Predict the structure of TolC family protein.
Amino acid sequence: MKCILKFVFGVLLYFVFCNFANAQNNYTLQKALQTAKANNPYLKTEQLNIGIAQTDIITAKLRPNPILNNQSLQLMQPSQFPASTDWSNGQNRQVSWQLTKPFQVAGQRKYKIDVAKKNVSFAENNYLETERNLFSEVAAKWLEVWTVQKQLEIIQIAKSNIDSLVLTNQIRYKNQVITQTDLYRTELLSKQYAIQYKTALQEVINRQNELKFLLGVQENLSIDTNDNFLFTMPQSIDSLLKQSLQNRSDIQTVKSLIDVSNSNIKLQKSLAFPQPELGFIWNPQNTIPYFGIYATVDLPFFNRNQGEIKKSYLLKDQAETQLFTIQSQIQTEISVAFSNYQLQQQNLESFNVLLQQSQTILDNVKYAYLKGGTTIIDFLEAQRSWLETQQQYYNAMQAYRQSYIQLLYATGLINQLAL
């Protein structure tokens, strides 16, 4: 009776879990990436860097403010005052007003604006690279949830099979068809599967919570286990490599950094020219008005911005070296990812025959056992072999899908899935 209740409870628990999963938001891989693109907290933080870079354009477009300067000189000896005058009389004071404005020469303002715009492009490409890395993490976590959900399903199937056999063997034991040892062996395996089921269920919950954080959502979610997510991509490694070298986000980031460096070289060279300051002077001296012109300029004997100019060239060299390094890295990554993808695809195909064989063996041994043609040991061994084959199959499926995600990441195509 106790085993019957356990069996019924297990079936109800399974259906409750299935209904709960159906009530949740069901995420395909593409939907998960799109949700992360819109809601992930790390991406929201990174996106602000684009706005910050855009404010530099506003700053670069601003012109220097005019400068108002005042100097007042007061005659301090009353004995020197003109007759019938006091401290406040203008005849005892000299006042100088200067209104000047610095001027940017040699295209300094133009180059500042150009550098700021190139920095915006760099920030945008850097954001796309952050997206690429995040999407890889989201896809890997999505696959983890898919895997543990599949593991939960096959354990539930195995548990249901063995629970039904427990009910049958209890009746057969009462009828003295089998021994108590056979019954205990069946019940022992059922209890083992019950423990595995609870562990797998907790794993599903844990992985789902981790995925929720990456997606930036609060509601419960589940994975669409029917999603194959095999998107169209070039099947030639040469096509993949060519496309990646042109479009991958880290390549675009470094190229934009080279553009920033080229603009910065022009800016630093222009800053070697002194910035003149020109204006007018209004200078009433003892109530006698004077008007003049003001002009000042640095004499570039020592400081001609030599250090920043040299640094700008070194920064360009650094960016070009980084570009060469990333190009070599991309070639290696795609070569490895494509080879691994092909291998895992072959491994997965070889499991189709194994799945059919393990199912056929289990069905035949179960039928023979119920007819008294074999022992409980043969049946339990067939049941364990079936479960191991199922688990190995989904492990191979996980490895295949991991290799596919890695190929999408290496080629940069994973960014396009979130569009």
